[in-house]
Amino acid sequence: MRRLHLHPLMRVLLLLVIAAALPMQSLGVLLVLGGGCGLVYTVQVTRALPRLWRGLVRLRWLLLAIFVLYGGFTPGQPWIAALPGISREGVLEGARRAWVLVDLLVMVYWLLAVTSTAQLINAIGQLLTPLALVGVQPQRIALRLALALDGVKAAQQQWQARAANEQMDVWARASQGLLAIEARAQQPGEPLMLPAPTWPPLWQWLLPLLALLVLHGVLR
């Protein structure tokens, strides 16, 4: 399957539109959407699947807490007679709320996997273009964000490599990471070159609008 050649700006806009609509969707829609996103992710960025799995594992306790909170404290018909505190409505709502986060995580990881840092920064700068009317410089904000992401990425690689060779607890690793990022920020580095931003073709502007109409029920 060929990779969808969506403009980076359209990828960001689609993510924002879908993310805004996710909390209003039913569990069935969320499952279908998550399955579709997972399939696209698997086909396009197979090598990045371990990263996605690690992201899901890190969310396991939050997902479990959401599921238990809604399942155990939502009034309704008991799911099991022996456990009257767990309602059917609560279990379904807990699963729906948890799946919102799963879908969002998959989409964010997909965006980061298929979009380079420079493309992402240019897309953010284009999104901020209307702020130029009030005196804000979108490209300056985008460049600052690019420098920050570039520094954090390099520092993270350094302290992760060091932590892999040393036996350190969680707090020690976190401290080393913060110190590495601070040291990186103090060091002069090569200027980060961003390609000249381009605008997506007109037909791609219809995709966020179509997603907005479908997910908000206008076309149902």
Helix and strand layout, with pairings?
Elements: H1 8-21, H2 27-44, H3 49-58, H4 60-73, E1 78-80, E2 83-87, H5 88-114, H6 117-127, H7 138-165, H8 170-186, H9 206-215
Antiparallel strand pairs: 1-2
Helix pairs in contact: 1-5, 1-6, 1-9, 2-5, 3-5, 4-5, 6-7, 7-8
Characterization of this structure:
By secondary structure, the chain is mainly α. 68% of the residues lie in helices and 4% in strands. The chain has helices at residues 8-21, 27-44, 49-58, 60-73, 88-114, 117-127, 138-165, 170-186, 206-215, and strands spanning 78-80, 83-87. It has a two-stranded antiparallel ribbon with strand order 1-2. The longest helix has 28 residues, at 138-165.
Low-confidence stretches: none
How much strand?
A: under 5%
Shape: elongated
The helix content, as a percent range, equals 55-70%
Helix/strand/pairing category: mainly alpha
Helix count equals 9
Distance from N terminus to C terminus (CA atoms, Å) equals 29 Å
Sum up the structure in keywords.
220 residues; mainly alpha; two-stranded antiparallel ribbon; 9 helices; elongated
Brief characterization of the structure:
This protein is mainly alpha-helical and 220 residues long. The chain has helices at residues 8-21, 27-44, 49-58, 60-73, 88-114, 117-127, 138-165, 170-186, 206-215; strands at residues 78-80, 83-87.
